[in-house]
Amino acid sequence: HSSHLYRPPAPGSRPPQIPNAGRAGAQAHQHRARGGVGGGVEGRCGSQPSHRAGTGARLGEGRQSVAGHPKPGLEPQTHGESRTRPNPLRHRAPLLEMEPLCIQIAALGRPLYPGMLYDCRSDSFIPGVTLWNRESLNKDLDTHVKPHTSFNVTTSDTINEKAKLLEISGSLKASILGGIVEIGGSAKYLNDKASSLHQSRVTMQYGHTVRFEQLTMTHLSKVTYPQVFEQRSATHVVTAVLYGAQAFFVFNSTNFSKEDKTQIEGKLKMVLNNIKNLSGQIGGELNLTENEQELVSGFTCTFHGDFELQHNPTNFTEAVEVYRTLPERLGNKGEKAVPLRVWLYPLRCLDSKAAQMMREIDETLVSRLQSVLEELEDVILSCNDLMAESILQLFPEVHDKIKEFYSSLLQYRVLFQKNLSSVLSAVRGGGKEEQDLESILESHKRSPFSSDKLKKWLGLKRSETSVLVKYTKPLKESHILFSSHLEEVLLDPEIDTTICFTFTSLAYSEPYLSTLSTYLNSDHNEDQSAINEENVQPWFRSDQCSSAMRENLKLFTSFAEANQHRERIKFVSAAISDPEHPGASIRLYQQAQLVDPKYIPVPKPKSAIVEDIQCSSATLRLFMSSENVRYYRVEYRKKLKEAESGAEGIEEWTVTDTVDLQETWTISGLQPSVTYVFRYRAVSDVGVGEASEVTEFHTKPDKVSLSLDMNTAHESLNIDYLDFLRTCSRRNDVFKRPSHPGRFSEVPQVLCSESLSDSCFYWEVDWVGGGFCMGVVYGSINRKSAGNDCLLGLNDKSWCICSLDGTYTSVWHDNKGEYIMKQCGDRLGIYLDWPAGTVTFYSVSSDELVHLHTFHSTFTEPLYPAFYIGK
User: Fold this and answer.
1) Which has the closest alpha carbon to 399: 384, 378, 381?
2) pLDDT, tens digit, 9 for 90 and up, residues 20-42
3) Is 693 exposed, middle or buried (0-12, 13-18, 19+ CB in 10 A)?
4) Measured at the alpha carbon of residue 302, what is the angle toward residues 301 and 304, in degrees to the nearest 5?
5) Domain ranges within the chain, ordered by starting residue
6) What is the model's pLDDT at position 279?
7) What is the CATH number of domain 710-869?
8) At what angle do helices 170-177 and 396-429 cross, to 10 degrees?
9) For 137-165, what is the mean pLDDT?
10) Would you say residue 54 has pLDDT above 80?
11) What is the pTM of this model?
12) Phi then psi for 789, rounded to 5 degrees?
């Protein structure tokens, strides 16, 4: 109850006398005259002085006055003896001006009017029973105008904040927590709770008081029905009421992050604070920015109020319009106002036979009870959020467990409140001690519904849900059908083969849920602190399950992707309990019959090896990936250049199947001097497997047919033609050849007859013996000199590779040389790309080309293959 104190008599006056109020009332006033009753929250009539203050005092142990000082108008007491002398009291003096024993409480939408009886033990009013008839009550009622307006905006949704807005304090709050107070009107805001932890909630409160009514001493001196005292159904009578009305506008929106939630609530609070002055202004304008308009459009509104509305507002705009009209809805004279706060006078002070409240509830105890219910509410909200996860619609096994847990929580909350309500009334009435409330808290702490146990189990479910989300994401990306009715898929006549990724361990036992159910049906006195959980390990925390699921998921998704275009095969996912294959397995169905509960698709094969490369073919070595492979599917295409790597430039794979499980396979029909990439897959009776890693190779260029030009050969060179082979060797002597303007006269060099330009050309040269230089030259190179302008590589008209002793190799152009740290071998390949301006030299072996060097230039004349023959 509230800690409001009531005004004592004016300084210098005497304590009031209550005519014909009964012996108990007289004794009470006599005792208060001695200073035995203090000015605390609930001074108790007929009690003895006590040095114990605070909550928990019995109704025979009145409190001291505020700060320990005697009340104004009363002389100090000595050993309980009064030194005051009563003065006559005006007959119609309001009771509240003289009686410090009254307590005040919030009406909470209840019809609490002057003269009504109230039982503080159960915080309930007694309808139909009064001390006075209606005529007497209305005759001497004292009324005052009390206009006051309040406005608040809060983002807090706690019980404490709601109680603060409704001016609910300790003992009444305990009754509300116990669910024994029937509330109405604006007080229903207490029951407006979030349905999700992700909700943004902002509440705007408007309150207005209009008048104050109270009984006078005339009523207390003329009790019409004194037999009511003997019924002992009430402890207090309503002696004063403050009238007015309140309204709560609760704005709700759903978000998905804690940061966004806090930020959005803060922004809406600022907007709501700006509409404070619109109350009563029908034409007032509320100017919102575009961002603010977008913000408020995302909120719904719930209205709780003491005002009569034809339609409750459901959004921000409607809420503002209703808010503007609230003052006028109370009526011109406030005739539509309702009780907001009431003052209660103890019946014990009127007659000793009346019932009384023997004990208050300790504030600390109320706070602890509140914490228990708030913790339960948080877990309930977490359950709501978890059950709303879309992933659980695919897995009813998990959803149903959380739903069962949620149902048990609701039952326990009702049970807890029921026990609390019965003990609260008994403690206040003196039938039980506060220790019984402590026992309720201790029992809760030992029960399986304690906060730690609830959060632990819910945390496991949250982890399980997170694992399911992570495993189903790649399935959705692969367009896998999730089927809770697998039989419908199996019976489809257009499907021959069904392959199902199966979650096998979702239906594991839950001892904790059984414990909750057992506790709800027990006497709750047994120690339930030891829950048998250690023998049941969740499947998602098992290393064996995790390993099996990872492996099967990878096999399944790759197998599904490889066969996604096959019409009579279907890939689905489902939850089927299978303890023999924990975690997950792949189930194979053919013609609607289960063929293999642990099917293993053909795995990804290891990369192939290129054993031989020609200009138009390549021979590959393939490797068997599993025993159920029937043959291989080889796929190849040209490698794209970076500039061609866009979607439009991607070339389709060319597919070829091997005849059987042969280890080598030759790809034919390739283009010369082109880089290819290829991969291959294993094929079983069910489908084709995942492709191997891509391997790259470059086909050899197509060789150009060349002939040595006798008219360019130096006289020391011997040219032979044998079986279409052109050979050139150097002699110690010289041949006397006819003079020719194209012949090299001073250096042992020779050119080919073919002029090369505007295309690509490749040729190979075998060499034996001493040193050499070979490459390409312009036809305009000097032929009659022994200087640099004639020698290969020493001028800007020639590009060559040289090896003078067979060990060191160098490349030359324009008299600039560069050594290369590679052996050139016995055969050299030369590739000329005249349009691109490149000349490339290779060392040629049986199965590969080894790159030696590439010249980059811009060719302006036709080129001729050229050779320098050393000794």
Assistant:
1) 384
2) 333 344 333 333 333 333 333 33
3) exposed
4) 140
5) 23-349, 365-596, 609-698, 710-869
6) 62
7) 2.60.120.920
8) 140
9) 91
10) no
11) 0.69
12) -70, -5
